[in-house]
Amino acid sequence: MEKSKKNFDIIIIGGGPAGISAGIYASRAGRSVLIIEKFALGGQLNLIGQIENYAGFKSIDGFTLANNFAQHAMSAGVQNVSDEVVSLKKTTTGFVVGTSSNIYKAKAIILAQGCHPRLLKIEGEDKFKGRGVSYCALCDGNFFKGKSVAVVGSGDSAFSDAIYLASICKKVYVLTKEVLKLHNYSKDELDNKKNVKILKGAISKKIIGSNKVENLEYQMNGKLHKIAVDAVFVAIGRIPDTDMLKGLVELDANGYVIADDNMSSSLEGVFVCGDVRQGSLRQIATAVGEGAIAGTNASKYVLKLKAKKSKSSNS
Q1: Which residues span the domain enclosing 174?
Q2: 91/237 Cα distance (integer angstroms)
Q3: Confidence grade of residue 311 (pLDDT, cut at 50, 70, 90)
């Protein structure tokens, strides 16, 4: 991107599948588009293992798909910077986006910043982050090849992590709630994995160790138990990255952005798509679809603003 260029028709906050899809549609419609992504284009998609439920790809790893998305966006004329957005303000002429190193201006905003991992909030979790406590099995799993690990969670991400870890680790313990919340996996998916043990109804209480994780203490059936593990992988859900949006757009009780079917938020000129939107299925396919809608409608919004300004100038 030209370092001097700071004004755009549309700025997209977040460069995951939703943000990239929005950028492609808006750019192809003739709008100048900037994606600001603090990690890398593709977002969390870069950290996912094999994907087998995205139409057109029988099986593809997340990193490769993320790269395909990024290449498509760039070929469509979408510009991007690696930076973290720290502020968003509405002005009389549009929006001002502040990052950790720059200030950008836009006529419309698309929110696609996704979510971050939810913490267990138990003793030892913070102490052993990076020393056995992880929130990304694909990122850190290989460090524990041939060792015993625990996965905490009751949803698809926990089961996906357990399946991956079972292929490289000696033993995998899965601590789940009584009620499983699975969309892409069957509850018996792990039954044929001989090195996986599911501890249903186990509640994690404490992570124990000296310089690294050595044990996980949990409660089950009213009794405390302890298992020897070298790592604890936390997969208990995610929290939307919307703290900076409080008071700017309407959020639900859990912090997700409320939007209509056109992906329009409560603030005119601000659109939303992907995991950060209330009610999103939080799948790649739906993120791409929502991004297409957001990008199209943001483009139409900018076009109307330009037409209104041109009419005003000629009158």
Answers
A1: 119-234
A2: 35
A3: confident
Q: Cβ–Cβ contacts within 10 Å for residue 152, how many? A: 25
Residue 113's closest CA among 270, 8, 293? 270
**75 Cα distance to chain centroid:** 24
Listed residues 210, 234, 258: the one ending a domain: 234
Q: What is the CATH number of the domain that holds 290?
A: 3.50.50.60
Residue 99: CB atoms within 10 A of its CB come to 17
Q: Strand 213-220 to strand 223-228: parallel, antiparallel, or no bridges (unpaired)?
A: antiparallel
Q: What is the pTM of this model?
A: 0.80
Could you tell me how far CA 213 lies from the centroid of its own chain? 27
Final residue before a domain boundary, out of 218, 234, 250? 234
The vertex-241 CA angle with 75 and 302, nearest 5°, equals 50
- Structure token digits, residue 106: 């836009």
With respect to residue 209, please indicate whether it lies within any of the assigned structural domains.
yes
pLDDT digits (tens, 9 = 90+) for 201-228: 999 999 999 999 999 999 999 999 999 9
In this structure, the answer to whether residues 19 and 52 fall within a common structural domain is yes
CA 207 to chain centre: 26
Q: Tokens at residue 270, please? A: 């601000």
